[in-house]
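Subject: Sanity check before I submit

Could someone independently write out the structure tokens for this chain? I want to compare against mine line by line before I put it in a report. The sequence has 285 residues.
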Amino acid sequence: MTEPAAALLDVQGLVVEYGHGRELHRAVDDVSFRIPPGGSLAIVGESGSGKSTIARALVRLVRPATGSMTFDGVDLARLSPRELRPLRHRIQMVFQDPYGSLDPHLSAWQIVAEPLAVRGERSRQIRERRARELLDTVGLPASAVHRKPNEFSGGQRQRIGIARALAAEPDLLVCDEATSALDVSVQAQILEILSTLRRERGLTYLVISHNLGVVRAICDEVLVLRNGRIVEQGPAEDVLHHPRDEYTQRLRRSVLDPALITGRKPRDVVRHVAAARTAESVATA
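---
Independent answer below. Compare away.
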């Protein structure tokens, strides 16, 4: 019998609670999942289902009540802030609000270069050169590197956020509703970037989303969450095409899916983003 592949991230029995006494609320209740190196898992659910709480727990913005979060053999839940610090660069987040997560006073290259400075790179010249390379990787033109966040569109700001995350050289990228604030054509562009990065750099993804179109485009596995508990879990194709749970079936019917708007399946949307990207580059050049 073949041994299962070692997981980069292995979450077992995760419980996250807010409040105290009678006001105690269990936001995440006994959630378990594994993601192998280079794999991608989507956590799907309605607002308030606990999916973003899981993301915040992984980067220790909140601390679990019980359970383990083993990353590359180390249980993140048991580490002190000081012990966690050397691992932080290996787990990076791309946030829902691409404007609110960027410092409005810094230029694009300065924002991307911040993680390089944190990791000890003292040379401004090297930081700027590396930032320019990363911005080019996510499709922003050289003419844009000195602009500030308010001079970019939402999709361009999200590209800056992705470049900043890449600057830390992460192994795991946590995308918390990273495309939900964008229109459908721009969503497709961001999905294409994420797909390419995973293929070329071997990144591992945890994708938090309510959008099944996003899930279908970039994720291998899907975990469906309701009121903090798992109601369905399995390969993306099985869960999305043959959902067993009534809640998953309802999500499938009700969630905004790019495929329904464009008339193309999400994978086809990804294949057809080149023209949109070219048009955006021309507009910003």
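---
OP: Matches mine. For the report I'm noting this point. Residues 256-285 have pLDDT under 50 and may be disordered.
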